[in-house]
Amino acid sequence: MSTSTHSLPRRSLLAAGGLGASALGLAACGGSDDSSSSGGGGGATANFDERGPITFATGKDTSGVLKEFLERWNKDHEDEKVTLVELPESADDQRSQFINNAQAKSDAYSVLGLDVVWTAEFAANQWVVELPKDKLPIDAMIPATVETATYFGKLYAMPFATNGQLLFSRKDLLEDAGVSEPPATYDEMYQIIEKVQGSNEGMNGFGGQFSKYEGLTCQISGVVKSAGGELFDKDGKPHADSKEAVEGLQVLRDGFDKKYIPQEALTYKEEESRQAFQDGKLVFLQNWPYVYEKFEADDGSSKVNGKVLVSLVPAVTGEGTSTVGGLNYAISAFAKNMGTALDFIAFMGAPEQQKAWFEQTSNPTASKAVFEDADLKKKYPFLATLKDSIDKGAVRPQVVKYGEVTQAIQEAAYGCLSGDTDAKAAMSDLQKQLTDLTKG
Amino acid sequence: MAYLLLLPTLVLLALVVGFPLVLSAWQSLTQSGGDIDPATGIIKQGDSFVGLQNYADAFSGAGAGAGFWNAFWNTTLFTVVGVSIETVLGVSMALIMARAMRSTGIVRASILVPWAIPTVVSALMWQLIFDANGIFNRVIHYQVLWTTEGWQAKAAVLVADIWKTAPYIGLLTLAGLQTIDDQVYEAATMDGANRWSTFWKITLPLVRPVLVVAVLFRLLDAMRMFDLPYVLLGRLESGQTLSMLASDAASKTNYGLASAYSMILFAYICLVAFVFIRVLGADVIGAQNKPAKRGGRSARAARRLRTTTEGSMA
């Protein structure tokens, strides 16, 4: 290239470069303008008859179970092979790769592993196609998980994995305090903590994820729902300043004020809180079920081995509500061979895969049947409680601007829990922000 | 002819520096995405030209947590306080190293280890140290919640940053110190100068050209600080810097606003670099002095002579 431009005077070359740059810039913008006229993406044109090789893009397969699944599928489908594309472990990185791909309208990814909170954004931008309910084992899935894959009444993904938080209690400390059952409400829990702290100097009470990150949004969604409120209603309208929502936040604030929740919980993410409970520093912990195996470890790493009770998370007034987590599978709007992609998603939702995934990774799957499975019940004695937790779970807001919304929720909740603002002011400020963010 | 020879370089610079910069500037004037259709929930696609709207949004801090000015003052605080302390510590380290072990390479290399560790790794390490039940709190026998909102979070970032980068200034200063001729010190001793005035009147002026460049590099580096507070503090306002705002906006697919934040940071860095070079006369392009280690005996002798005269002039 440089040889051909040697003869050009410097100035005109720079000018040409500048023009080229701006022309490219214009072209880039023009490219995305086109899509608005064509109705935005390929949502309307999904063709489920095309078959052939596809790719499957999802977070890193740390367990190796996915590879087994793919081998099984590829053996039976010579002409419709699925290739695994492993994305980074961090959810944020996965999301940005999906978005980059969608904006380039690339067909590199056919099936996408989407976190439950991304459904709205991907559906609203028409980066994923609507899925036919009758060709997928949707009825076999827990309804709360199907809700996480639905946007404006349409199904955009199939639930694969799910999750719900549980309350882990110290059996020995409860017995010392004369209590036999784990608490069902925050009031009961705080009373028990007061008793336990009376006889155990320096014992911390309740731990959850109160650091300023996604985990805090999970805690708040759950506690607001168990107080009878909701951050967003079915039509996507925010109700953060309702009496119930304020009450939910206030209960947590009271816990901090009265030292039932230690100040250091403001630094807790999943792992920090897990470690604190495992070291015997907490009476109660709200966390995902994965922690159970670590608590029951008998290699000396756990000080609470055999002393853990599992129950539903505490409620404010109604029933204890946890946030529903999990992973859904969607089909990229720019993919080829959507017929194969649809079949493959259905295959992943089949009982055999659902059970194997839960059994080998300790991550619960979305199908109802796995919670009735005898083998799994034996391995995870709290399975019925977990099912209950997911059934009653709070789905995090299904909003397009989820990034902004979750940040606003975290700001408001963290400000209140750390004692800077009171619950009512925090929630009415949050309501203003959420109203702005959902206006479009 | 000389221009022709420069052409390949200029083309390359235009491609890898000019083009992205122009594109960024253009993008900062556009906004992507439109309104949501209330019936289907589908978002209208496409970019639109919005003039300086993104800049107005940036300064009013729309949708960016604690907003622009919080990030601006954090960036400035981390830069000014951090680099000042690093400079003092770095120079002290260099003086000690120059005194105690004129040429033990191992010690010098090991001093540089913190600087060689990737920032993300050192941030994770400091996260463990600053944990509520971490080593730091155990040593001081008092529980400070370092990773909660407040001055302590800023202090944590500063400590981790200073730990990591003071050795860098130290090593560059050491290289500068070693070009100072012993004769100058001997002469000073003969004249009855004490250590204090030797340092201020001889060491510092002679090492200044090297030190100023080192500090300039650190300034530019500190102003675009991202990974350390991002990993150590996550979303806390106390650690939010300007480059984090840009990354945050981009992750929300608000690329126009992200570009606006980057352009503002770019302008801020340019301004600081310009003022710094003007005021302190940093010799960045080496018009006056080449760094040590190269050249034969005669070159070294010439340099010694020159530094000596410079010193006596100052």
Description:
- Chain A is an alpha/beta fold and 440 residues long.
- Chain A has 2 domains: 46-163 and 325-391, D-Maltodextrin-Binding Protein, domain 2; 166-323 and 399-438, D-Maltodextrin-Binding Protein, domain 2.
- Chain A has helices spanning 10-37, 65-76, 91-103, 119-124, 143-148, 171-176, 186-199, 214-226, 243-257, 270-278, 291-295, 338-348, 351-361, 374-379, 383-391, 402-417, 423-438, and strands at residues 54-59, 82-87, 111-115, 150-151, 154-155, 158-163, 166-170, 204-207, 282-287, 308-311, 325-331.
- In chain A, β1, α2 (65-76) and β2 (82-87) form a beta-alpha-beta unit.
- The two termini of chain A are 46 Å apart.
- Chain B is mainly alpha-helical and 314 residues long.
- Helix content of chain B is 70%, strand content 2%.
- Chain B has a two-stranded antiparallel sheet with strand order 1-2.
- The longest helix of chain B has 33 residues, at 68-100.
- Chain B is globular.
- The chains are: A alpha/beta (440), B mainly alpha (314).
- Chains A and B meet through α1, α3, α4 and α16 of A and α1 of B.
- Chain A: InterPro entries: SBP (IPR006059), TAT_signal (IPR006311).
- Chain A: Belongs to the bacterial solute-binding protein 1 family.
- Chain A: Residues 29-53 are annotated as: Disordered.
- Chain A: This is ABC transporter substrate-binding protein.
List keywords for this structure.
heterodimer, A: 440 residues, alpha/beta, D-Maltodextrin-Binding Protein, domain 2, 2 domains, 5-stranded mixed sheet, 4-stranded mixed sheet, 11 strands, 45% helix, 12% strand, disordered N terminus, B: 314 residues, mainly alpha, MetI-like fold, two-stranded antiparallel ribbon, 14 helices, disordered C terminus, maltose binding (chain A)
Question: What layout of secondary structure does this protein have?
Answer:
The complex is a heterodimer of chains A (440) and B (314).
Chain A: H1 10-37, E1 54-59, H2 65-76, E2 82-87, H3 91-103, E3 111-115, H4 119-124, H5 143-148, E4 150-151, E5 154-155, E6 158-163, E7 166-170, H6 171-176, H7 186-199, E8 204-207, H8 214-226, H9 243-257, H10 270-278, E9 282-287, H11 291-295, E10 308-311, E11 325-331, H12 338-348, H13 351-361, H14 374-379, H15 383-391, H16 402-417, H17 423-438
Parallel strand pairs in A: 1-2, 1-3, 8-9
Antiparallel strand pairs in A: 3-11, 4-5, 6-11, 7-9, 7-10
Helix pairs in contact in A: 8-9, 8-16, 16-17
Chain B: H1 2-27, E1 30-32, E2 47-49, H2 53-60, H3 68-100, H4 105-111, H5 113-116, H6 119-129, H7 135-140, H8 151-177, H9 182-190, H10 195-223, H11 227-233, H12 242-251, H13 255-280, H14 297-313
Antiparallel strand pairs in B: 1-2
